[in-house]
């Protein structure tokens, strides 16, 4: 039977293993914590190459979190995975409108996805938000349209939906926009990745 190790030791050893495997790979120090936490969450080293960042995206995300911004997600899974205690200590909270009855009813009436309607609802929040999208490409399309119309102010977009239909295109659309972003090129991503990126920034604030 393997030795029983505490959760803290497991995480510490996991990050040591990740560093050993990456070895002499060059990583921008600003992005290192995000990249390693995503690898830790997924055990997928492809993210070393597919995660991409706009200029100083992590610093901008941390600054927004320190200022008390909210995080808007497109799944309850991502919401559950984000460290709400640290976020709340700065006056922020995690918002996910996907399960709201009014969102479901409006999406059905207009025959569109709940992700589109939930981003429209998020746009009515009174402060800039970090948008952490790990599942729905249509959420990213909605965010871009709302930004173009001047109806949404994003402090940072985490564009990491997973899948096959419109996933790559939605991420590239955000990468080619002028908004600060952290994105995972290609088909890989997911709600755990979105939550891991948020947590990497929150933990970095806690360590500072």
Supply Rg: 17 Å
What is the helix content? 40-55%
Order of helices and strands: HHHEHEHHEHHEHEHEH
**What is the tally of beta strands?**
6
Alpha-carbon distance between the two ends: 38 Å
Q: In DSSP terms, counting alpha (H) and pi (I) runs of 4 or more, how many helices?
A: 11
Could you explain how this protein is built, in words?
With 208 residues, the chain is α/β, with parallel strands linked by helices. The protein has a single domain, classed as Rossmann fold (3-Layer(aba) Sandwich). The chain contains 11 helices and 6 strands. The chain has helices at residues 7-22, 29-42, 47-50, 57-66, 76-81, 84-89, 101-110, 114-122, 137-148, 167-175, 191-207, and strands at residues 51-53, 70-73, 94-95, 129-133, 154-159, 181-184. A 6-stranded mixed β-sheet has the order 1-6-5-4-2-3, sandwiched between helices. Helix 10 links the parallel strand 5 and strand 6. Helix 8 packs across helix 9 (137-148) and helix 9 packs parallel to helix 10. The longest helix has 17 residues, at 191-207. The radius of gyration is 17 Å and the shape is globular. The termini are far apart. The mean pLDDT is 95.
